[in-house]
Amino acid sequence: MGFLWLAVFLMLVSCLLHTDQDANSPIKNLRMEPRSRRLTWDLNGNVTEIKCFDTPNYPIKAKNNRYCEFRVLPSCKAKNYTVNITSSQSFSTSILYPEQEGKPGAAAENLKCWVHDVDFLTCSWTVGREAPSDVQYRLYVENLKTHEEWQCARYRADERGTHTWCHFDDVSRFSDRFYRFLVNGTSRGSGIPCSEIFEELSEIERLSPPNVTGWCNKTYALMEWRTSSHFTRRFNYELQIQTGTDPAYTTQVLKENFFVLSNPGTYTVQIRTQGFFTKILSEWSDPKRFVCDPEKEGAGLRVWLTASLTALGTLLALGLLLLLCRRYSVTQKLFPPIPRMKDHITDHLQNKLMVWEAGKASREECPVAEVQVLGET
């Protein structure tokens, strides 16, 4: 009985759905144009509305009833594209794109890519189960908006020399968000299909946990942090805090990069982050301990005061010593002047000179003899 109902159903469907083989089909020559990403056809007759499907639940309305334009076309795995006419007489036709080449099991498998440590992009894959021994893979990244393409240059290979990993050092070149990651395969003996994935870079980024800095006293603690990313601007955070000997607890911080903790005492904190529109959480940061205990704070203040008073006392003692030295000429006694060199000529003359006062008679009278001049000789 079930078989009979199935046969009736198929007959009804065949009456409603026609294919391109019918000369009266409203759509003929269905084809895909890869460069423009358009599914186009030749229209036969008048129709009211045409819709295209690449997935059952997301129809695309045809433009001028002549073509449907898709944002992305696959390059590796065939996909079914359907054109549906809903009017007085329903019609549907479809094609597969792209055509498959080579052994599907020879393509790279488990392709995945991720952004990490702010600036780096890494992709990895495994060798296809049916791949020949001389297979070699190469990775390409394509900007789906501009169609600019980059080939990866830093590969890592397995034990037989086949590339299974690739790394980009600078992701700042990827200015847009949506990219195609494609791995092509080559072999001397057979064709190797490609493998591809489509990703938004913000959704595959593994954020690094931020570094927490802070200031605290016995009343409150202020914690701050920063997160860096080329593709994400808004973040959520989780803090894991343990105060004293109490059990640790977790609190969420939405879109802010600070947190205030009241009466902190001594506490330990860890943090992890998540993009506002993604679900990937970073790893927890290393635990960081802050000491805000009042006793510790008082001990530190006492040490500071002791050091300050010691320095002040030293300065006062030095000032008093300088004042005493100036008042009692201690400096001259401690450091007498250097004697001058002896001058023998000047000192001899000074010993022979006699000093007297004019107008006063000498205490001793000296006899004076007269001398007569008798003649010249």
Key terms for this structure?
377 residues, alpha+beta, five-stranded mixed β-sheet, four-stranded antiparallel β-sheet, 23 strands, disordered N terminus
Summarize this entry quickly.
The chain is of the alpha+beta class and 377 residues long.
SSE inventory with pairings:
Layout: H1 2-16, E1 27-33, E2 38-43, E3 50-53, E4 59-61, E5 67-69, E6 79-85, E7 91-97, E8 109-116, E9 120-126, E10 136-143, E11 149-151, E12 154-157, E13 163-168, E14 178-186, E15 192-200, E16 205-206, E17 213-216, E18 220-224, E19 235-243, E20 249-254, E21 258-262, E22 266-275, E23 288-291, H2 294-327, H3 330-334, H4 344-352
Parallel strand pairs: 8-16
Antiparallel strand pairs: 1-2, 2-5, 3-4, 3-6, 6-7, 8-9, 9-13, 10-11, 10-14, 12-13, 14-15, 17-18, 18-21, 19-20, 19-22, 22-23
